[in-house]
Design goal:
170 residues, mainly alpha
């Protein structure tokens, strides 16, 4: 007895398997999202150590004049975060064609928010523990927001450019 509806998997049936509906490939494995978020948090810890070593009043730099120490320290962290934000944004743009791009971007930007806060906390903790300058603190809180903002801005500008040029993703 033959079924009343033809099976697409059987040879000679209509529609052939070539015309079947594609599966939904938009999901991204949770481990990938966890990896992006944890990598950003770990990068924040490393950035805090680098900030303490590189900033005036930190581990490698000499003691600056008191009136410029806060500004130079904030600019050091801001510059580090700008570079890391551009690199992270570029890495995210390179993976925009893969499934789950927007979830990956959300995990990376969210992880970089946490990593940015950890960079400040680690740098200030190292300044208190080992620094000659007891006032090794972040004076401008906006410097801590540069990393996630730069990463998101790189992705946003890339998406706008692709939209303006009419390039469609396949």
């Amino acid at each position: 007895m033959h079924p009343s509806t033809p099976d697409a998997g059987q040879p000679g049936s209509y529609p052939p398997p070539v015309y079947t509906v594609a599966t939904d490939d938009t999901a991204v494995p949770p481990t990938s999202l966890l990896w992006w978020a944890s990598a950003m948090v770990g990068l924040g810890l490393v950035m805090g150590v680098i900030w303490w070593f590189a900033a005036p009043g930190g581990g490698l730099y000499g003691d600056p004049a008191p009136e410029e120490a806060g500004l130079l320290s904030d600019l050091t962290l801001g510059g580090l975060q700008l570079v890391v934000g551009i690199v992270v944004g570029w890495l995210l743009v390179q993976r925009m064609d893969l499934p789950g791009a927007w979830q990956r971007i959300g995990a990376a930007v969210g992880g970089s928010l946490i990593g940015s806060v950890l960079a400040v906390v680690v740098g200030q903790w190292l300044g208190m523990m080992f620094g000659a300058d007891p006032e090794f603190v972040l004076h401008s809180l906006g410097a801590a927001a540069i990393w996630p903002a730069a990463a998101a801005l790189v992705v946003f500008i890339s998406a706008l450019i692709e939209l303006a040029w009419g390039k469609r993703r396949t």
